[in-house]
Amino acid sequence: MKLTTAVLAAGTAVAFATAVVGAARLKQDARHQTERNEAVLARNQLDWLAQMSTTPGLTKLWTPEGMDVEEYMQLLKANQLICMLSLRDRLGFVRSGHLPWYAAQLMESDVWRRFGDLRAQEAEGDERAEHFTRVLDKAAKNHPQARPAAA
Asked: What percent of the chain has pLDDT over 90?
């Protein structure tokens, strides 16, 4: 092989490797930007829930007809806990196997009965969110309040 052919082949290999690394880097950057966007949106939702669950005047505007404002504020506070857990899970901060335990703790409130269907609709098409919803739904079904009293 001539020296010029070897130099051309080496240059082509280096250019190809650089292009592959660059494409992988762009894909990784896009994934990280998506994760940052999700975190910002989750923060906005958590901020809104924090305001709604602590400001009766604001909450009154959103309270469903026939429901007490204080009751709705408590449900929103519980929903805020679900949102925080969902974000922690999405970001990978819930250790493997611990999600069912967290879900069982959340079932001490009435929030899943009120908001579970909404959460399931929001999760559609998002595999991780669907898994999260299934775990919480299972915890709700296993919670003592959900089981009929033994006769």
From this structure: 31
